[in-house]
Design goal:
The complex is a heterodimer of chains A (302) and B (436). With 302 residues, chain A is of the alpha/beta class. Chain A has two domains: 192 residues, HUPs (Rossmann fold); 83 residues, no CATH class. Chain A has nine helices and ten strands. In chain A, the strands form two sheets. In chain A, strands 3-2-1-4-6-5 form a six-stranded mixed sheet, sandwiched between helices. In chain A, a hairpin with a 2-residue loop joins strand 7 and strand 8. In chain B, helix 4 runs parallel beside helix 5. With 436 residues, chain B is an alpha+beta fold. In chain B, strand 2 and strand 3 form a beta hairpin. The chains are: A alpha/beta (302), B alpha+beta (436).
């Protein structure tokens, strides 16, 4: 709370609102789950859930949709957090779907769009009725239209024209069998809010969010890291650079940015001065078309 | 780290008043639009054969919106200045205007109503002001746009501002801030206009940055809807029993004598946990956990309130509602009523009147409310509800009606005499075929 008595700072207001959303879901749903990728948004989401139910444990399990193209630092972080807080983790594996023929690798090698099917399969298999995502409305134009409680049909689909109006703080979580609700407690956070909140709460992040020397190669205007997912093609030259990540997703389409920000204060200063959005700077999959995100969301993606 | 406050506001305007341009201008001139977003807009504008980047494209996010050049649904935008963070509910002025504006206004602390300086106050303007009054949005701004097309002339602005202010006063809105702008040219949106020396007031952004958002929780009745009961049952917290929730209004202090509704049992607040920290006082809208001195049976849906000012639970609800679903609401309909954290069965007993927002006339017994209609409704609930009148609390006076069959949100409700502002207008006989 700020100095003048009865005002909440913007971070306190956002925190209070997100906690309210977690508790509403805990009160109204049978089988909620938190999508957890080890990225900063899902880490903040989990931190808020831990605060919402303290001193009890979080009454939800975690679900990681594993593309098989992970940053090793992020997987290690995921497993550490799960153990530390005594959480349950489910993993939906894109690789398994490819191995048994239910999914086919794309020619461009990116696996982000392939996450939808394993996600929907896990939701159906575990009968999850509320699925928390770390999506923020500031990320993308289609996400600006997203509700905090977003009803998905039995195919996981999002129809922006048929959304329920969201009035006051009265979230309507009613759904028919087979349908589920996606819930976005960070809806009103911006990228900068997330970083300021991480700083204030002293939340630990995977090390790749801070500047480090790494082998990278240039593709489509981004620095990509070679790894188990594949590496440079002919004509793409690997070099060592000082970089960091603004988002963490599938290695095949998440780019690093040049940076010497070693501390959270330096990261915040860098983001405040950046002239690029985080997706514009680092996500190849959103550059596929003007409506790439909307189209994926309609199919059941976050 | 600097601490900033948060302002939630909504914009309303009819189709060609330049609302998207105003929003685009606010985002652009406050440097909240980044290079890749601008490049995307420039690219899309070129593809359509437009020479200058169309700032309206910054906000039209859906495929259908870009194809048709219209805004379909409420969108939320974010921008910041060193003084304040802003959450903008960008509500389309189109066909479904009323429910969209009601949605945006329900959480807004301020509403901007946009008019075209050449057209002045039109029926749509009156609708927007009436919805802002109905939803009790605390601050109202009239933005008189397209001043560049009205010769930047003071008399044109003054006439519109006077007419609007008088109308707003008749709605019970005490104060309107009127600002002459050109969203297209950028006058008085973020930077003061060089063309309107006669205007001495703030720019739109300056006003957004400085309008007071502090309320005095000590002046409000304290209300705490119980969301969730926290019982760790671990060795370290064997006897912990906390009531988690977000304070809807007012303040709670350790030692307060409280009543739990609807049971009416009383106890004392023994501890307040503010997300990990024990505090002596907490206030709206903090999410906290209250603990009580006595071992009462308290569960989700109950309301904790000071014993002295607790509301009287009732099963008969009279309210003003805005119908938001495509299927109509009729007397006899069986619905669910969601109020704070409590959802109960209810039946629509009567629809005594429908309001015509254009002239604020009441049409008695319309027979039904269709999408976007505003009217009076009486309901009977299966269980007692601890409702406050909406004019006393936007949080504990608000409710939803939900279709029990498929979960559709049907109606936004405001309990009690929320229409006080409209009371002086006499009922008018209906001649539009609504009596059936």
């Amino acid at each position: 709370m700020s100095g003048n008595g009865w005002t909440l700072s913007h971070l306190d207001a956002l925190e209070s609102e997100a906690v309210h959303v977690f508790r509403e879901v805990a009160g109204e749903f049978e089988r909620p789950v938190i999508l957890f990728s080890g990225g900063k948004d899902s880490i903040v989401m989990l931190h808020l859930a831990l605060k919402a139910f303290a001193p009890a444990t979080v009454p939800f399990s975690l679900l990681h949709v594993d593309t098989g193209h992970n940053f090793p630092e992020v997987l290690a972080y995921r497993d550490r957090v799960v153990a530390e807080h005594g959480l349950r983790l489910e993993v939906a594996s894109v690789q398994e779907f490819i191995d048994d023929g239910r999914l086919r690798e794309r020619p461009d090698g990116t696996r982000n769009p392939l996450q939808t099917l394993p996600l929907l399969d896990a939701i159906e298999r575990h009968r999850f009725d509320a699925v928390f995502g770390g999506g923020r409305r500031d990320e993308e134009k289609a996400r600006a239209k997203e509700r905090v409680f977003s009803l998905r049909d039995e195919f996981g689909g999002w129809d922006p024209r048929r959304q329920r109006p969201e009035l006051w703080q009265l979230y309507n979580g009613r759904h028919a069998p087979g349908e589920h609700v996606r819930v976005f407690p960070l809806s009103n956070f911006t990228e900068l809010d997330v970083w300021q909140y991480i700083a204030r709460e002293k939340i630990e992040l995977p090390s790749i969010y801070y500047a480090h020397e790494r082998e990278v190669f240039a593709r489509a205007g981004m620095w990509l890291a070679p790894g188990e997912w594949g590496g440079p093609k002919e004509g793409e030259r690997v070099e060592r650079r000082l970089v960091r990540y603004r988002t963490v997703g599938d290695m095949s389409c998440t780019g690093a940015v040049d940076s010497d920000a070693l501390t959270i204060e330096a990261v915040i200063a860098e983001i405040a001065a950046s002239r690029l959005t985080e997706r514009g700077a680092t996500r190849a999959d959103d550059k596929l078309s003007e409506a790439a995100m909307e189209d994926r969301k309609r199919e059941g993606y976050f | 780290m600097t601490t900033t406050s948060l302002l939630r506001f909504a914009t309303a305007g009819s189709v060609d008043d330049g609302k998207s341009t105003l929003v685009g201008r606010l985002l652009h001139d406050s440097k909240s639009v980044l290079a890749d977003q601008l490049e995307a807009v420039a690219h899309a504008s070129r593809n359509r054969g437009q020479e200058a980047p169309d700032l309206a494209l910054l906000t039209d996010g859906l495929r259908a919106e870009r194809e048709q050049g219209i805004t379909i649904d409420v969108a939320y935008r974010y921008f910041a200045t060193p003084r304040r963070r802003f959450i903008l509910a960008d509500t389309p002025g189109h066909v479904q205007y009323t429910r969209n504006m009601v949605t945006g206004a329900s959480t807004a602390q301020l509403a901007i109503v946009l008019v075209d300086a050449r057209n002045g106050v039109v029926e749509q303007t009156r609708r927007h002001a009436a919805v802002a009054a109905l939803l009790r949005v605390p601050h109202l701004v009239l933005a008189v746009n397209k001043m560049d097309l009205a010769g930047y002339a003071e008399p044109a602005f003054a006439a519109i501002a006077d007419e609007f202010t008088a109308y707003a006063a008749s709605l019970g809105i005490p104060e309107v801030t009127a600002i002459p702008i050109s969203a297209l040219a950028g006058d008085n949106v973020v930077t003061p206009s060089a063309h309107m020396d006669w205007y001495g007031g703030p720019t739109v952004l300056e006003h957004l940055e400085t309008v007071p958002v502090v309320t005095d929780p000590d002046a409000e009745d304290a209300r705490f809807p119980v969301q969730y009961v926290i019982r760790p049952q671990t060795p370290a917290h064997r006897d912990y029993r906390g009531y988690a929730g977000q304070i809807a209004s007012g303040t709670f202090r350790v030692g307060d004598r409280v009543t739990v509704l609807p049971s009416g049992r009383t106890s004392t607040v023994s501890a307040i946990d503010a997300l990990g920290t024990g505090v002596d006082t907490a206030f709206a809208p903090q999410s906290v956990t209250l603990r009580l001195a006595d071992d009462l049976d308290v569960s989700r849906g109950d309301l904790i309130a000071p014993a002295a000012t607790a509301p009287v639970p009732t099963q008969d609800v009279a309210a003003t509602v805005c119908h938001v679903a495509d299927r109509p609401l009729r007397p006899g309909d069986r619905v669910l009523l969601k109020h704070t954290t409590r959802t109960v069965k209810a039946i629509v007993k009567d629809i005594p009147s429908r309001l015509t927002l254009g002239d604020l006339s009441h049409h008695p017994h319309p027979g039904e409310l269709a999408a976007n209609d505003i009217g009076r409704v009486t309901l009977r609930t299966a269980e007692p509800l601890a409702l406050d009148p909406y004019h006393r609390s936007r949080r504990t006076g608000a409710f939803l009606l939900i279709d029990p069959a498929d979960g559709t949100t049907l109606t936004a409700g405001m309990a009690g005499d929320a229409q006080a502002a409209f009371a002086p207008v006499a009922a008018v006989a209906d001649d539009e075929g609504w009596d059936f």
